[in-house]
Amino acid sequence: MRGKQITKIESTLSRLLDGDLYTPVRIEGMGVYHATLKRLEELRVTLLKLEDSKLEIENKNNSAIAAVAHDLKTPLAVISGYAECITDGIDDKDYAHLILDKTRQMNDMVLSLVETSRQKLQEETSHKIAQNMQVYFNGVYQRLESITDQGRINFEMSKVPNVSVRLDPYQFGRALQNLVTNAVKYSPEGSTLRIFVKRRNKYLRIIVKDEGCGIAKEHLPYIFDQFYKVDASRTNVSSNGLGLYITKEIVTDHGGYINVHSKVGRGTTFVIGLPIERENQEKDFTARVDKLPTSAKIAISFWFGFCWGFIYRLARFFESRRLSTLFGATMAIWFMPFMWIFDFISTCAYKRLIFLAD
Ligand code: ADP
Which of 54, 78, 196, 265 has its CB 3.0 to 4.6 Å from that of 207, i.e. a possible disulfide? Predict the structure, then answer.
């Protein structure tokens, strides 16, 4: 490289170091000089992307703080209104109780916030152990039922398969509790909440299905976002848009997935999938074969049929020394899917192979 080129590279580098990421690097020249400028331009684009994502996170945090401040402001204003009434000697609506109610609501909100920030820490320290799901759900059944009792909605739960899952009982209990609490919050009195626990391949699926107000299609992609509320103006139902966010964090930390299906006016279904412990996946050979898809089972039976036909033809060749029999055996591979059926039938019926030129 010539002196002029080295100076240009040096000045480009110091421009990038000074934080000027918006002026593109002009790629010119040839050979090493060209390659170096190209690399510097790539570096500039990467740094710019990093800067953008940093800004995005900052904006998100700012709007989250604004949302929390707003949510805390509303009950605070209501509390101070009630307190003023009491001071003025007006207490026609049992304001002390209303104040207590609002404080509880605020307390819940703050607790959820604390829970959210603690979540990340706990992900690293969460204590997961292999749990038999029948035992686990037996343990949490009463707690979940007691939540629905308060909301006076019916609660049903399916049989739980006898499998184990690695989970943190406390954390996962929180996730289940959030889903059940939501179902109670957003379902009318007398409706039914059902929990189905099923096994599907390597996952245990926990389906929480309610008959509540449902969620409109346009909101579904966002409901697991932090602070997202379908009805931001909702004041009668204690809501902070953190429950589903925490639930998703917990499920993901357990190596699982969560998704939602909903129809307005018909109800909402949340599906959690958790990986089943390997040693509990049946070791029994026939059970494993049973679980294979039908196409795989057909392919296996064809394959064994082919092997049988091939070996039989070879044996017959050594007996008869007829080349056509050997030819049939070596060619058999191309006719694997159907040849063995003819061979099998002809062997059973006529005690000889009839396919090809036997
Ligand atoms: P919160 O319920 O505290 O507002 P969530 O994160 O638990 O926060 O829920 C986010 C939003 O999703 C809620 O505001 C609510 O509108 C909607 N939602 C959650 N679960 C249900 C449900 N089972 N039925 C109807 N809407 C629901």
Answer: 196
Pocket test for ligand 1, best of 147, 194, 223 (most atoms within 8 A of CB): 223
Max Cα–Cα distance, the chain, nearest Å: 116
Distance separating alpha carbons of residues 161 and 149, to the nearest angstrom: 25
Structure tokens at 169: 């009982």
Give the list of residues 6+ apart from residue 211 with CB closer than 8 angstroms, or none: 187, 188, 191, 192, 193, 266, 267
Tokens describing residue 332: 């058999």
What angle do helix axes 95-125 and 31-87 make, rounded to 10 degrees?
150
What are the start-end ranges of the H helices in 254-322? Answer: 285-290, 294-320
Which atom of ligand 1 lies at the shortest distance from residue 178's CA?
7
- Between CA 25 and CA 240 the distance in angstroms is 47
**Cβ-based burial of 145 (10 A; exposed 0-12, middle 13-18, buried ≥19):** middle
Q: Quick one: which of 119, 180, 171, 172 has its CA closest to 145?
A: 180
User: Given this model, what pLDDT does residue 293 score?
Assistant: 80
pTM of the model: 0.56
What is the pLDDT, as a whole number, of residue 358? 43
Rounded distance, CA 258 to CA 206, Å?
Answer: 9
> What is the reported pLDDT for 339?
62
CB 196 near ligand 1, within 6 Å: no
Facing residues of 195 across strands?
157, 208
CA atoms within 13 A on the CB side of 54: 6
Ligand 1 pocket residue status of 182, Cβ below 6 Å: yes
On whether the CB atoms of residues 226 and 241 are closer than 8 A, the answer is yes
Rounded to the nearest whole angstrom, what is the distance from the C-alpha of residue 175 to the centroid of ligand 1? 13
Gap from CA of 157 to ligand 1 centroid (Å): 21
**What spacing in Å lies between the alpha carbon of 104 and ligand 1's midpoint?**
19
Angle formed at CA 141 by CA 138 and CA 143, multiple of 5 degrees: 130
The one-letter code for the residue type at 302 is: F
